[in-house]
Amino acid sequence: MQNIDLTGKTILVTGSAGFIGSNLVLELLKSESEATIIGLDNVNDYYDVSIKEWRLSEIEKAAAESSCSYHFIKGDLADRAVIDCLFADYKPTVVVNLAAQAGVRYSITNPDAYIQSNLIGFYNILEACRHAEPAVEHLVYASSSSVYGSNKKVPYSTEDKVDNPVSLYAATKKSNELLAHAYSKLYNIPSTGLRFFTVYGPAGRPDMAYFGFTNKLRKGETIQIFNYGNCKRDFTFVDDIVEGVKRVMKGAPEKAVGEDGLPIPPYAVYNIGNSNPENLLDFVTILQEELIRAEVLPADYDFEAHKKLVPMQPGDVPVTYADTGALERDYGFKPNTDLRDGLRKFAEWYKEFYKV
């Protein structure tokens, strides 16, 4: 593995107004020194833009107190000219591509958004890395646990075959891994894909179940719990994801030459998950308890009257469960935030943000 010191480096984080991207930028501003951090995001209205604006304002505050310099560019990953200009102007040598159209269910009704952002956008990043001067030392990009589809074997290992996606979103993420492999092989670009498992936490995405449940419960609406509550998810707190990404950024796959004289692709893929799948019904119970504790919901809230067990949704999978052995082995890291601690932080943020 090639160690990369981020001190003084120019780092590009795409999707920097997004949930994981904004938290990564905040962490880099706090923990790194003398780096130049470029954030790129199109700040689209897939969900409530005020949350994205809040995240960006938190970054501005952190940047004011950091030894790093920070620049935000509002632009679209799928716009080749924007990406080419950015690379020409700033010359990033570490690239973290987190910008993507997220969500399994939205991909069923709006496939175009996924092709533009996840395929064309990622291709633009790969091309920019290919032509970059100076050379990009490490490209880290977001994949997803959804690539495992309806694999029966658990926990999911990166050694498993992932040729049967059950959503277009999953298919685009698997495509990213294939494209990255080809570019690593052809152009010797060190690249690492990260398969994230159900990320949650403060200022998260409102289309995620825990956030949507909270909004509905507050309004006195009924929440639907799919697969009759028998889904299991490897819920991973956002701080654990960010710590994992940061460690991976600092360790790039080694460049090497094979017996044929051609590059062995400097390519890797890891799972980042909690390795502890939780039953959805248990998750919702803890969420409700923490919302009451934070006074988002009243103490006498009748939870039973506001939940409905319903069948599985198209594109969903019954269980996600990460084998994180490779991440522990290579980077000495294993996510470990307790579910209740993570949901408590979300509930407290929610109360403050929405002035409950």
From TrEMBL:
Domain NAD-dependent epimerase/dehydratase residue range list: 11-256
A Pfam family the protein falls into: Epimerase
Membrane-spanning parts: none
Keyword list, A-Z: NAD
Lineage, opening ranks: Bacteria, Bacillati, Bacillota, Clostridia, Peptostreptococcales
Name the UniProt record assigns to this protein: NAD-dependent epimerase/dehydratase family protein
Taxonomic superkingdom: Bacteria
Keyword NAD on entry: yes
Cross-referenced InterPro entries: Epimerase_deHydtase (IPR001509), NAD(P)-bd_dom_sf (IPR036291)
